[in-house]
Amino acid sequence: MENKTEFKPYIPASKVTSELTVTSIIMGVILAVVFGAANAYLGLRVGMTVSASIPAAVISMGVIRVIMKKNSILESNVVQTIGSAGESLAAGAIFTLPALFLWASETEKKIEEVGGRENLPEGFLIFEKPGIVEITLIALLGGLLGVFFMVPLRNALIVKEHGTLPYPEGTACAEVLLAGEEGGANASTVFAGMGFAALFKFIIDGIKAVPGEVSFRVKGFAGEIGTQIYPAVMSVGYICGFRISSYMFAGGVLSWLVLIPLIVMFGENAVIYPSDGATIGQIFAADGASGIWGSYIRYIGAGALAAGGIISLIKSLPLIIRTFKDAVKSINVKGGTAGNLERTAQDLNMKVVLIAIAVLTLLVWLIPAIPVGPLGALIIVIFGFFFATVSSRMVGLVGSSNNPVSGMAIATLLIATLILKFTGASGAEGMAAAIAIGSIICIVAAISGDTSQDLKTGYLLGSTPKKQQIGEVIGVCAAALAIGGTLYLLDSAWGFGSAELGAPQATLMKMIIEGVMSAELPWNLVFVGVFIAVLVEVIGIPVLPFAIGVYLPVQLNACILVGGIIRLVFDKMKKNEEEEKKEIINDGILFCSGMIAGEGLVGIVLALLAVFGVDKVLDISGLLNLPPVVSSIGSLVVFGLIICTLLKFSIWKKRKKADVKNEA
After folding, report:
1. How confident is the model at residue 563 (pLDDT cuts 50, 70, 90)?
2. How far apart, in whole angstroms, are the C-alpha atoms of residue 255 and residue 532?
3. Rounded to whole angstroms, how far apart are CA atoms 455 and 161?
4. Are 315 and 541 in contact (CB under 8 A)?
5. Which of 88, 91, 147, 259 is the most buried (most CB within 10 A)?
6. What whole-number distance in Å separates Cα of residue 87 and Cα of residue 57?
7. What is the distance of C-alpha 391 from the center of its chain?
8. Which of 132-136, 166-170, 316-320 is the least confident region?
9. Domain residue ranges in the chain
10. Which residues, in sequence order, are bridge partners of residue 228?
11. According to the model, what pLDDT value does residue 404 have?
12. What is the per-residue pLDDT for 398?
């Protein structure tokens, strides 16, 4: 194992340069809000988020080096540290908090159905939408706990295991920052992705010149296939790669081309719960395959997702236990900012950290806006520190994308809901408390993993850990202030659980709590999903991406697969072009990261327009009144243009560079 004294960072400990400056804080806060909002939108659509560290680093390098003419790599590192906190906090929040909106929406529909709250049936659970203050406080307290839980683990996981834990995203981010002479060109690639995605998103969902989805069905067959044409969705496939995107598509094929046709064929005249009295044939006649998906497949997908999360957690148990024991043994309680410590070894003062954790725990218990009592606060501290340790170690080994945060949240929800139920906290209050506990734990796990990646980047570059930790706190505060308004805006525009915002993880968390608190969950469908997940695991297929594919619409999975196929083509380039291939793939990742941010931001703008009714003024689909076939062709043409922009800023960009070089 490599010793700390043998490692020499890029900026030596003896050299002091700009880090936590006004410039880095302002830029970092802007990126935290931007990438937080964009990832909230993306995660609610596709059930996945992407790391913001590398695009944030590239943008900061472009602005600081090229525009401001400053050579300050550690300042750029603080920008990406603050900026990436927004993405991680959004990921933790959107996986859980929308469940409260879903329950409130069900309450509102029922009240409207029966003609008033006074006519509600006896025992009906009444939920109110969480206030923006409640969402902000849950996000803020969870995020701060995630940062402070990670501080005493830095020495054990980042320093002492430097030669053991690779921290893939953290190392990659350091490499991007070290390639400072290319910062301007790389930054232009990210901004180009943002611009093109914004344009395409506005054409598709703003003026609605073409449909955002193309679907095909065979007469007499209840299945359906097709693709969405959104740049951000395709970008997810490119970043994840062909392997993951193909597993997701396979799950979608199982749902939409196997399970839905079987349900319609064998149960056409049957009325099966959770139907409200309509037969399966009537549901299919009214809404097609989407109706069957909404009524039945999403419960099968939820079962597969839950089983996948638990399986991932069980497989990680030996590592989890060993990590927790080693990390606790290695905590240096005397660490801090003492004068005898080198700059690169200075953490936040440990006494301050412990006091902050104690105060935050008391606030979780005592603040009326957070529906968590003393028992809930105790659960949060115990599970929070445990999963912060697990998350920090797991991302060091397998990266943030493979960190089983959803599995940790599922385990927490199951245990917390059972404890609350047995202690008498049932009904709407108990369910809301369970979601609040799960939300804070999910955010803790996401933020602690992000913090550890950022600290790894700082360790390689020679940053001051204390300043990065302060940056994480700033990023968490900025993102927490923005996430409540973002969730309210998206819910007001389209509603969680809709075709536009499926919110798969939050729906799953909602179902788990309902299943524990009551007996109304369609357990037969859930267990079908569970055993599909077990079967998939037995034959050696990664269960989580497959389970997400089972849950999500096949059109969305197909769009992700297109991005994965493009990445596969780049990966299969000749071996004698290895350096060129690496550059092309990196350019593609940067462009796709920009496209995700660009579409997410326009999605937020369109949501704002929808709330005020302006979206109808922009809609030209009625004026065009194109036949379905022509509309579908138009959608495919736009999709082709989206693919061409990715090629333009990746493989064609590199070819042009090579041609210019050869001519010279």
Report:
1. very high
2. 11
3. 13
4. no
5. 88
6. 14
7. 15
8. 316-320
9. 4-11+18-663
10. 213
11. 57
12. 53
* Amino acid letter, residue 533: A
Q: Are 251 and 549 in contact (CB under 8 A)?
A: yes
Strand partners, 393: none
Nearby residues of 206 by Cβ (< 8 Å), 6 or more positions away? 602, 606, 609, 615, 618
DSSP 47: S
Among 66, 186, 94, 73, CA closest to 461? 73
- CA 107 – CA 101 distance, rounded (Å): 10
To the nearest 10 degrees (0 to 180), the angle between helices 578-611 and 465-493 is 50
**C-beta separation of 71 from 414 below 8 A:** no
Angle 339-342-346 (CA atoms, 0-180°, nearest 5)? 80
Cβ neighbors of 663 (< 8 A, separation 6 or more) are none
Position of tokens 């020499």?
8
CA-CA distance, 496 to 283, in Å (whole number)? 21
CB–CB of 421/517 below 8 Å? Answer: yes
Q: Which pair of structure tokens corresponds to residue 308?
A: 């996948």
Give yes or no for a contact between 303 and 543, defined as CB atoms under 8 angstroms apart. Answer: no
Does the bond joining 274 to the residue before it have cis omega, within 30 degrees of 0? yes
- Per-residue pLDDT tens over the stretch 61-75: 777 776 776 777 899
Mean pLDDT (the chain) is 83
Alpha helices in 2-120 (DSSP H): 22-46, 53-61, 73-94, 98-114
Name the strand (E) or helix (H) holding 216. Answer: strand 213-216
For a pLDDT cut of 70, what percent of the chain falls above it?
Answer: 88
- Residues 6 or more apart whose CB falls under 8 angstroms from that of 117 comprise 111, 126
Name the amino acid, one letter, at 514. E
Alpha-carbon gap, residue 404 to 393, rounded angstroms: 11
- Quick one: pLDDT band at residue 558, thresholds 50, 70, 90? very high
H helices of 95-124, in order, are 98-114
Mean pLDDT of 108-133: 87
